[in-house]
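2 proteins. here.
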Amino acid sequence: MSETVDIDKYCLAEQDEAKLLELSREEDVERFVLRCADEEEELSITIEALKVRIKVLQERARGMEAKCEKLRGIIQAVMQRDDWKKPIKNGSSTVTLADTAPDYEITNEADIPAEYWIPGDPKLDKKKLREAILEDGLVVPGTRRTNGGQLIKIRRK
């Protein structure tokens, strides 16, 4: 490993030509340039290694997220199968099977009539859409009503 370069010393020197000239006289130019090049190479190698490690960690996190979703699905299936209504608690968590209210989802935004869009900056008026579908019971093209369902809530202390 080569001797590291005191970059701050030289960066500050860039602001003062007299200081830069003084520093360049203190050291052999070839030696200085080669030390800088060696350090830049080491930093570049470290950067590439970090990028690879970050990618590996991101893939690992995605795998863990998928496993969490599967575990939540298993918990939900078991609690639904046994028609479990009470929260299940331990020292650090509370698991509950909760009912969700009926909702709507957008199936094709382009089919939604103009009356559900905010004029000017074309943006869906989701409040108006929700009221029309869920409260008034209207069938709005480009949407569908869902029946609600159940979901798992896990609270941690």
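next one coming up
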Amino acid sequence: MQHNMHFPKWFDSGLTNSKMRILIADDSSLFRERIKDLFKSLNNIEIIGEATDGNEAIQFIESNSPDVVLLDIRMPGLNGMEVLRNTRSKGNDVVICMLTNFPYKQYRERSIAAGANYFFDKNLDINLLLEVISSIAKN
């Protein structure tokens, strides 16, 4: 995991007593279900939506303003990198956690350079993802 610490406006605005709102953007229904099951133990987060492709992710981010986006790099339509660039180009400071089954160094470097806050290997870093989300939600 590599991260670029940048917190959204809600982080310092006194809204941290409310639940942290998360969008899961991944074309794998099995992975989305796995994440939802994993996060059930966290009382201070809420999964507010799911997107199965990049276009859905952008529309959801723009209309629902999640606090955190779990964003797969490889999706149909617009890929995760395109969603990341689009979101950052609009000045949106949502926390973005890039997820991939292909944790190549160039993906990691490009993701962080484009404004991703975190980069996780779906196979190796799932428990670390849970720890990071839990820590962000507690703070």
